[in-house]
């Protein structure tokens, strides 16, 4: 399926979601998208827009793009808009006309206090829009598109699910290459370089910034977080933890894997490592069991969180999972605790067709970090694993 | 100079610009910067921020970063902030504390109706901030950082100028490779592929989206704009126009070059092509002559625009030039007409140390498009060319 057809598929889906949420018009405004893009632009075609551009999707299924004269041909080629209007001096007349004609009772804009995937409207463009609508009834009909965007991103089509799965398959193959190459004494940066080579060789992209994709954490001295791979080296009797996501056909994977480097005389992992591994899996499985349509995000997280803490491990200072797809945050429901940091995203309700990560970790003193992460699909009956779960610790 | 030192250099410069504009505090708020980044983040260190993060730069020279716990190490490594505060559950207490302590009479935020390079604050984060400051006097002290960011981006340091020049040198070398390879009958996409190869081979990045970087326009049938290179082929008696910008050490070039394919029996370009070329250069030179500290952007554009129209060519539906540096829009003053589309950017005043493009073009019926673009530095005495101007049409 080409990029254009997937855009049409998602925009067809959008009209239904708008009706469901009683929104007449979904309006996306962007400008100079090399500098400040809206994450929703990918759903709308992903084209570059130099001048202020408006994408209107109505609940009746009508789609209008208003873009600078020079950008019209790129939008027309998508064949996803009923009307592509090019302008020269000002977007205001065409935008006012289009809104007048559609006469929406409610207009959803991409701003959100909680969900950055639905928060692409800049404050400056919000001021421009408010000014353009001044004196019309539409100025009072603006609201957040948060729920619309959350549903649209969150409910994955069969094609989208297939793409996430394909990205996971590539990632697992890369983990296989890493496993073959691992020796005690390898530096984190050497392991990252090997992964970068494989990514280039396979023609893949990165699910997040290349500087810490993969994140590589060797042994107990590494502070696990978003820091880059460094000079620390794998050692016998210690753990190696890698967090990797690739992008294939615009869709992402996000997986964590763990290796244990057997010490002299060991033929299996020591008790402290096995205990952490078992506790983590029990915790992730508890989360997976709670992950079903209708559950609130925080409830799923709580199931996993309580299990891990009850096993005597420190409470993770992050969420159990996030939605995955076009980016590693593709949908606004977080499987996370009700902390201010997460806004209202943990209150979101899990839906059939959502794709989530399930990820938790724990330090093993003197050994390193055990961190699991799998990618799963929510079905009517429960969870379907899109990745092949790492049920066994990998021994080197 | 390392990335970190350049960040320090720009942040040192920022304190002086804040005092000049009577702003006590410049506050940048970002979140999940893989999805919605603020173009100003590059000036502040360019680090990835997962959770809501605040960067405070005061007119007294104090710099504070408040970021999620996992992101602290990346910021500390820059050595550009006096204080790096990590948080777990909510940014609000640390942010409120820091602002209370600095007690600013004025706080500049990155929003702008005209300049996307100063419009990185999302509307959702603006709501979050307004809420966090509710009940404090600071809620009433917010304004746009437009002028501060414009000056900070616009006044290039010696290091920044050297980097733009180096990017231009690479670009010219790539044009040289193209010239050697050109033959009648080559498709636009073949020429683009050759440029992509050279960019990869030289370890460069793209100044704008790879799909239309370079833009390649062969002959009169191509609609010149932001459309991608296609199947059109170079032909004898026609023009080839290429618009290319590369990124080297985080800084960009942006240049246009033109080739004429001699027809059977021709030893020089025909009269219609030469006339357009001469008129364009006269127009660009008129703009260059007007480009001096103190001029308004629109005045510089008008000098060029009037010259071209007086020579009988169609009025360009775009501006003569934009500021160049970390991106192809690095600074908010546009050398452009006072059209609504450009907001107040043409009213900006040219300053010493600004780097601008100078670009104009004209169609030659039946032949194709002649488009010039050079990169120049504004000095106290006038313009210094950072690229080697294409004073002669290139003949194939």
Word description of this protein:
The structure is a homodimer of 396-residue chains. Chain A is α/β, with parallel strands linked by helices and 396 residues long. Helices cover 33% and strands 20% of the residues of chain A. Chain A has 10 helices and 16 strands. Chain A has helices spanning 3-20, 41-44, 72-78, 92-102, 123-132, 146-154, 158-181, 188-201, 271-290, 297-310; strands spanning 25-30, 53-58, 63-68, 83-87, 107-109, 142-144, 205-206, 215-218, 239-244, 246-248, 251-252, 255-260, 355-364, 368-379, 382-385, 394-395. The first copy, chain A, has a 6-stranded mixed sheet with strand order 4-3-2-1-5-6, with helices on both faces. The first copy, chain A, has a 4-stranded mixed sheet with strand order 8-9-12-16, with helices on one face. The radius of gyration of chain A is 23 Å and the shape is elongated. At the A-B interface, helix 3 and helix 5 of A face helix 3 and helix 5 of B.
User: What's the overall geometry of chain A?
Assistant: elongated
Interface with most residues: A-B, 64 and 63 residues
Helix content of chain A: 25-40%
Oligomer: homodimer
Q: What is the count of helical runs of chain A?
A: 10
């Amino acid at each position: 399926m080409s990029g254009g057809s997937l855009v049409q598929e998602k925009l067809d889906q959008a009209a239904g979601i708008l009706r469901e949420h009683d929104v007449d018009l979904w309006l996306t405004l962007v400008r100079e998208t090399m500098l400040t893009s809206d994450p929703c632009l990918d759903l709308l075609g992903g084209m570059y827009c130099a001048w202020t551009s408006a994408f209107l999707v109505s609940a009746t299924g009508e789609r209008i793009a208003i873009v600078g004269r020079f950008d019209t041909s790129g939008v027309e080629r998508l064949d996803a808009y009923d009307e592509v209007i090019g302008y020269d001096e000002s977007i205001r007349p065409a935008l006012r006309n289009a809104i007048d004609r559609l006469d929406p009772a409610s207009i959803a804009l991409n701003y959100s206090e909680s969900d950055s995937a639905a928060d692409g409207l800049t404050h400056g463009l919000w001021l421009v829009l408010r000014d353009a609508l001044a004196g019309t009834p539409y100025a009072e009909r603006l609201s957040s598109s948060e729920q619309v965007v959350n549903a649209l991103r969150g409910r994955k089509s069969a094609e989208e699910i297939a793409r996430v799965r394909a990205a996971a398959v590539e990632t697992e193959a890369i983990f296989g290459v890493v496993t073959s190459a691992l020796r005690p004494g390898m530096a984190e940066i050497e392991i990252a370089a090997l992964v970068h080579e494989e990514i280039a060789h396979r023609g893949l992209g990165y699910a997040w910034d290349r500087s810490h994709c993969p994140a590589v954490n060797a042994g107990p001295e590494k502070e696990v977080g978003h820091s880059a791979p460094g000079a620390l080296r794998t050692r016998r009797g210690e753990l190696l933890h890698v967090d990797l996501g690739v992008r294939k056909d615009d869709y992402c994977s996000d997986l964590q894997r763990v290796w244990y480097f057997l010490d002299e005389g060991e033929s299996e992992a020591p008790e402290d490592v096995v205990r952490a591994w078992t506790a983590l899996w029990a915790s992730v499985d508890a989360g997976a069991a709670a992950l079903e349509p209708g559950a609130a995000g925080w409830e799923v997280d709580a199931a996993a969180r309580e299990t891990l803490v009850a096993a005597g491990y420190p409470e993770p200072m992050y969420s159990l999972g996030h939605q995955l797809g076009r980016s590693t945050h593709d949908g606004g429901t977080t499987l996370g605790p009700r902390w201010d940091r997460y806004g209202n995203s943990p209150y979101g309700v899990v839906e059939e067709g959502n794709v989530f990560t399930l990820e938790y970790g724990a330090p093993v003193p003197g050994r390193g970090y055990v961190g699991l992460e799998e990618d799963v699909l929510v079905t009517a009956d429960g969870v379907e694993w899109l990745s092949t779960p790492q049920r066994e610790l990998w021994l080197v």
